[in-house]
Amino acid sequence: MANEKAKRIAAREAAKLIQPKTVVGLGTGSTATFFIEELAQRAEQEQLQLKAVVPSSSRSGELAKSLGLPVKDINDVFNIDITVDGADEVDPEKRLIKGRGGAHVREKILASSSQEMVVIADESKLVDALGVGVLPVEVVVFGSPATRLKIENLGYKGAWRMTEESSFFLTENGNFLYDISFDTPMTDPEQTHEELIHLPGVVDTGLFFHLARRIVIGWNDGKHEIR
Ligand code: 5RP
After folding, report:
1. What tens digit of pLDDT does each residue of 15-36 get?
2. Strand pairing partners for 116?
3. Which CATH number covers residue 45?
4. Number of domains, the chain
5. Which of 47, 70, 212, 222 has its CA 20 to 30 A from that of 79?
6. Is the pTM of this model over 0.70?
């Protein structure tokens, strides 16, 4: 796995930020997986007595449960103290692109229901401007060819995300993902989000604004930094 060491370092440092007797939101993806492992280890060693952990995906929920963390469904929790999650891209203003793991809608719900979102990222995720890689857009299956046309009529280009078995990738919510690619990074990500979010059939984009408060960055040389 690429940048495994740096991801693990970011995850370990973020686990140290968790206070006892709190409710913790869990992201999805390889860095979030490291965080869940590190949190479970710390919870056991230091008896954190967490009130609950709230997963953003079945994958994260199953892992957390298997490691003995007190998993609760988002529908049974109204206040999350802190959510820790990975990202695909982080810009200098702490704006994010998320969704390579297909869970960004749930992740945004968790982050926006939390007192704080902490992002854990290896150094490769830091960009000067968002849109170096793809921007995932979650699209309702019903009428998806028409929704795709509406996206492309705005001037965006991309492709449906497919599985290795060449079937449509389904998100945690059973929707499709249209991955927009850019020739050059976005100059105005807020405008891009604004254009896409109002199209009927678009559930949400992978753009996160004003949600990440602290970014824990892991470096391949073993160092870390909190911004
Ligand atoms: C899942 C996400 C992930 O946080 C993001 O894709 C980063 O993944 P990884 O930690 O595996 O690099 O947004 O929807």
Report:
1. 999 999 999 999 999 999 999 9
2. 82
3. 3.40.50.1360
4. 2
5. 47
6. yes
Q: 136 by DSSP, 3-state: which?
A: strand
104 lines ligand 1 (CB under 6 A): yes
178-211 pLDDT, tens digit each: 999 999 999 999 999 999 999 999 999 999 999 9
Which one of 28, 58, 127, 161 would you pick to mutate in the ligand 1 pocket, going by the greatest count of ligand atoms within 8 A of its CB?
A: 28
| Domain interval for residue 149 | 135-203
Specify the amino acid at residue 120: I
Cα 32 to middle of ligand 1, angstroms:
7
- Are 6 and 94 members of one domain? yes
pLDDT tens column, 89-122 = 999 999 999 999 999 999 999 999 999 999 999 9
| Separation CA 54–CA 223 (nearest Å) | 29
Q: Are residues 117 and 69 part of one domain?
A: yes
Two structure tokens written together for 222: 């073993």
